[in-house]
């Protein structure tokens, strides 16, 4: 049944590609942007990439059999087998399942690259056809009709870019042209929109457009100009992911980030267009994470923009603390919406900070944010204990293996592992990782490398933090690093 479904989707994709290839923009041959958007989203969701951005191969994992892990007393533990992760990206860089076998040899790399299935080629042809159609323009003797891309609503532009990034379709000239054109169009719209945080309530926030009391667009210009923060952050994330695999798209990311900075931050003495407002006060936590990850992917250390992102991130933490202290949970922020960080989102924000090495030297907000994250996570663990969960740990608050490795690595890279809150969090992380190891669970090898780097520094600078880590787990981390 799954094979029949896959075959049917391939047949639909072939037929849709033929229709798009014959598109000429005249007569009854009409292409609707919304239909192209839905098609891209559907195929990207069901046929996502299985290699993380910028990687040659899918992630590998190792596992120590439970019988071997039980030999902690003798310290004789086998390396386990290497495996290949064939995963999907739902949002950001979260990879969760395990399958198959792999090797890191050059022969396997070439085999993986050449092992393109017929279905993959069908998907490539479809996405190229979509890119060509969106950017297609017809020239007449006296005028030039606008491309479909310029008529796209913001939601469609960001969804199409997300689809290309999630599918992992980045290498064709058609894709390069589409993404570059989409960024130019988005930048043009951002520069034309009112600047500053105050205008976000009317354009870029959640409220209605000033030109329509019903919230519906009055004309095509309204339809293409109105946006919400998610449209912008998702587009930035998508371009950031794509440029990891195609360096020629790096300039497009820089261009988009510049437009975002001009739109929300301003320039020079007019840095804050409305000093009474916070530039990102209307952004949700997921929006802030996507924009921060995009900057990290592109290695763009725009301190002015990043400072405002982390100021807002820290503000949300403070408001969350205030809400938790209000009995009955009746507290709401001024805008009526209570924003709360997911635990794994905080781990990503700290990872971005470490990846760009943003310390208190670049701005005091980076120091206070890195101090607040361990305190916030530990408070959540303690709250579960107070509510009767006596075995509460970092796992129970949504901090999985990947997030644990990211947190341990980030805290040590930023030299934020000396506070008591950080030490307690690191103890909990290594306790959880060691427990998973002894039970024979899979461990991503890149996560093992992160844990080893953290352990190596802690063993020298804060030996009490890793004093309870058993020798077999320590040796396993070292072997995976030296392999």
Describe the protein in words:
This protein is mainly α and 483 residues long. Strands 2-1-3 form a three-stranded antiparallel sheet. 55% of the residues lie in helices and 2% in strands. About 18% of the residues have low confidence. It has 18 helices and three strands.
From the N-terminal CA to the C-terminal CA, the straight-line distance is 42 Å
Low confidence ranges: 65-69, 73-115, 139-145, 204-220, 268-275, 327-331
What is the CA-based Rg, rounded? 25 Å
Number of helices: 18
The fraction of residues assigned to DSSP E strands is under 5%
Largest sheet: 3 strands, antiparallel
Assign a percent range to the helix content. Answer: 55-70%
In total, the number of strands is: 3
Name a few traits of the molecule.
mainly alpha, three-stranded antiparallel sheet
Brief description of this entry?
The chain is built from 18 helices and three strands. The protein is globular, with a radius of gyration of 25 Å.
Protein topology:
Layout: H1 2-21, H2 33-46, E1 60-63, H3 66-69, E2 81-84, H4 106-114, H5 118-134, H6 154-167, H7 173-192, H8 220-225, H9 229-245, H10 250-264, H11 285-297, H12 303-324, H13 343-355, H14 364-386, H15 401-413, H16 420-438, E3 442-444, H17 445-461, H18 471-482
Antiparallel strand pairs: 1-2, 1-3
